[in-house]
Design brief:
The protein is mostly helical and 159 residues long. The protein is built from five helices and two strands; from the N terminus they run ββααααα. Strands 1-2 form a two-stranded antiparallel ribbon. The longest helix has 59 residues.
Length: 159
């Protein structure tokens, strides 16, 4: 078996000779590649070199970690988009509330002016409408009396 290194290139090559050991290794490699169809010969060589050279696990590339990092990046992007849409929605709601508040303030000002004008023109007279509203708001004490007290009051008067 010959392993060629070229310092100027990133590509390396492995040559399997006709020797029994090389041919046996080649068969094992082909069997392993057929079991793991998603792996290439290059990936299999790298994995074997990592194991053979006893490189710490922390330095080994982890495809699952890369996939998780990509998913995390995608989730962060989606979260940023959601925050942007929520901000826009809340901003428009806030603007609508501010418009309504401004309108209510204007209406209160107009009502205040009208009330002040009426008080200036008729300081001692209450409008008939207000008197009728006051009568409906003042509770009628005779209607709210306790029925038991109504029955007992004549007895107390006789006593």
């Amino acid at each position: 078996m010959f392993f060629g290194l070229n310092k100027n290139k990133n590509k390396k090559s492995v040559i399997f000779d006709q020797e029994v050991a090389d041919q046996c290794l080649l068969e094992v490699v082909e069997t392993e590649l057929s079991k793991q169809a998603h792996k290439s010969f290059s990936e299999l060589c790298k994995e074997a070199l990592w194991q053979f050279l006893c490189v710490p696990e922390a330095l080994k590339p982890n495809p699952r970690k890369e996939a998780i990092e990509q998913q995390a990046t995608e989730v962060q992007r989606q979260l940023a988009e959601l925050e942007r849409r929520l901000f826009n929605k809340e901003s428009s709601r806030l603007e609508a509330i501010e418009r309504q508040l401004h309108l209510l303030t204007q209406q209160i000002s107009q009502l205040s002016v009208i009330v002040n004008q009426q008080q200036y023109l008729e300081p001692h007279q209450q409008p008939p409408q207000l008197e009728s509203e006051l009568q409906t708001l003042i509770p009628d004490t005779t209607q709210d009396a306790d029925p038991l007290l109504n029955r007992l009051s004549p007895l107390l008067e006789d006593f």
